[in-house]
Amino acid sequence: MLIEDMLTGLPAYFPTCEGAYLVGGCVRDLLLGRPPADYDVAVLEDPRAYAQKLAAAAGGRIVEIGKPEFRLWRVAAPGGIVDVSAAAGAGIAQDLRQRDFTINALAVDIATGTIIDVTGGRQDLNAGTIRMVSAAAFRNDPVRLIRAFRLQARFGFSIEPGTLAAIGRDAGRIARPAGERVREEFFKMLGADRSAPALQGMARTGLLTALFPELKRAGENVLERAVATHQQLESLLADLPGCFPDTAEVLMGELTENRRILIKCAAVLGPVPGIPAIAQRLRLSGHDAGRLGGLIRHHPRAIGILASPRPSPREVTRFFREAHAALPDLLLNAAADLMAEPAGRSQDIRSHTAELLQTYAFAYLPRFQSPPPISGNDLIAEFGLKPSALFKQILDSIEEERLSRSEMGRAEALEMVRAYLKNQA
Question: In 270-375, where does DSSP find H-type helix?
Fold first, then answer.
């Protein structure tokens, strides 16, 4: 079968050199009618020479990556990145038999356009099935344990029973790979719009507790609650306009893909201690580690605010100030956690969350972004105060009052300072 008959969207600049093959995920995506994010080429003879021809044809540039035994030549070309490497083994069939899943063990002979399938990958692709190429797949690279569920989340495919059983047997191996590789696969899985079935599969096979043994040590029912919270959160994120019509535009503007992933991660890890150690194990950036830590640290306070039928404006303002950097993500995660309770009042929780989100978006944020009515210079000029603990207490008190009401001018703020100092005398 030829490329022109089956595959669309392939750039025209690939040199038609004998012994060069498109391989892996790019072939899978082209067969599914999806534009690949990048391309992989396996070459039997001289991968460096092929990369040079490719770069010349595409007007791209070459970067050598990896150690000598795992060297690849990356070509930045129009339409995507192309990674060129030596085929593993004596021929393309041997290379494909060493890959992870049959749907990724597909190749196209660039010279002839012939699709090469030695593991039944096209049949599994048509059936929507994720199947390991061999029993050694997970032993050869344990990151593939998570990748199976990442592919399930991305494509909505099912993992066949034998592969699930092998994941269960080899789950403990997930502690071996480098943390950044594990994080990349896990975060890509969470980044899918419908990752809940995949996370449930990770829990059932024991892979989730192998990845995060803290979940197992945290106590009875913690794993079940974490999975349920993640599922509820994903439902909220999937339909923000339907769940929170008044603030959906604000939420969608703030909740970037990375923030959505971190909220889901917090939903899974919320019940466990030791988040700094987990962040270090996954090699999170300082920014992501701080954001994840904030979501989990302020979670009990958010639960308390949401569980309270009528928190006072001052209570809400104090919570918003304390957790400002983690909002509005924190409210969505707390709502999902409460909705995951066996007898959770989902509609009441959603309504209360909607009210708090409106207060945050249309009352708190505009006030927070406006300049305060007085500053430290006013305390010095008007009252002869010097920077001190009292100085900070006064400014904090004024700021909390300002953020709790609709309007406060300079004169009113100065009068509050006089009253405050009088009470302190």
Answer: 275-281, 286-297, 299-307, 313-322, 329-339, 346-359, 365-369
Helix (H) or strand (E) holding 149: helix 144-155
pLDDT of residue 66: 84
Residue 4 has pLDDT above 60, yes or no: no
Provide CB contacts within 8 A for 107, sequence distance 6+: 21, 22, 23, 24, 27, 42, 92, 95, 96, 115, 116, 117
Using CA atoms, how far apart are residues 417 and 376, in angstroms rounded to an integer? Answer: 12
Dihedral angle computed from the Cα positions of residues 41, 47, 52 and 55, in that order, rounded to the nearest 10 degrees? 10
Cis before 328? omega within 30: yes
Q: Are the CB atoms for 136 and 173 separated by under 8 Å?
A: no
CB distance 305 to 319 below 8 Å? yes
Say if CB 18 and CB 111 are below 8 A apart: yes
Q: Could you tell me which of 129, 303, 143 has the C-alpha nearest to residue 207?
A: 143
Residue 301: CB partners within 8 Å, gap ≥ 6?
319, 322, 323
Q: Report how far Cα 31 is from the mean position of its chain's Cα atoms.
A: 27
Q: Which residues pair with 63 in a beta bridge?
A: 74
| pLDDT value at 191 more than 50 | yes
Neighbouring-strand partners of residue 72: 65, 85
- The predicted pLDDT at position 304 comes to 93
Q: How far is CA 240 from the centre of its chain?
A: 18
Highest mean pLDDT among 309-313, 335-339, 419-423 belongs to 335-339
Whole-angstrom distance, CA of residue 11 vs CA of residue 303 = 52
Give CA 14 to chain center in angstroms. 33
Distance CA 294, CA 333 (A): 12
Q: Which two tokens stand for residue 336?
A: 């999902």
Task: Provide the angle, in degrees to the nearest 10, between the axes of the packed helices 376-383 and 389-404.
Answer: 120
* Count of Cβ atoms closer than 10 Å to residue 5 Cβ: 9
Helices (H) and strands (E) in the chain, counts: 26, 9
